[in-house]
Amino acid sequence: MAYRGGTGVRFDLSQAIDAYNRTARGPGEAPMTQRRLAELVGTTEAMVSRHATGRVSPGSESLIRYTRVVRCGIEELFSDTPTMPSMA
């Protein structure tokens, strides 16, 4: 779900989607899903999933597109919450 850099800050797309669904979407507007986000950002659902899970770090253009679609600041796409190591 997250990019883990040396600073402990991680990319957290699900946090931004959740915030959008709680506050930014208009009346009668469907909740944001990864499929819908991919369509609006101009990428594939698979790439959104890779970004959301941390398998691929989004580039600056993707970050800007995400902020425009989910109506948030770029800092809201990152979290400094520690993550648990994967048990996979």
Q: What do you see in this structure?
A:
This protein has helices spanning 13-24, 34-41, 45-53, 60-70, and strands spanning 10-11, 78-79. It has 88 residues and is mainly alpha-helical. The chain has one domain (10-79): lambda repressor-like DNA-binding domains (434 Repressor (Amino-terminal Domain), Orthogonal Bundle), CATH 1.10.260. Strands 1-2 form a two-stranded antiparallel sheet. The two termini are 14 Å apart. Mean pLDDT is 80; it is low at 1-5 and 82-88.
Level-2 CATH architecture = Orthogonal Bundle
- For the record, the CATH class is Mainly Alpha
Compute the CA-based radius of gyration.
13 Å
> Could you say what the CATH topology is called?
434 Repressor (Amino-terminal Domain)
* Percent of residues in β-strands: under 5%
- The parts where pLDDT drops under 50 for at least 5 residues are 1-5, 82-88
Q: Tell me the distance between the termini.
A: 14 Å
- Could you state the order of secondary-structure elements as H and E? EHHHHE
Structural domain tally = 1
Please bin the fraction of helical residues: 40-55%
Q: Look at the structure and name the CATH superfamily.
A: lambda repressor-like DNA-binding domains
| Secondary structural class | mainly alpha
Main sheet summary:
2 strands, antiparallel
Number of helical regions: 4
Strand order of the largest sheet: 1-2
| Shape by Cα distribution | globular
The mean pLDDT is: 80
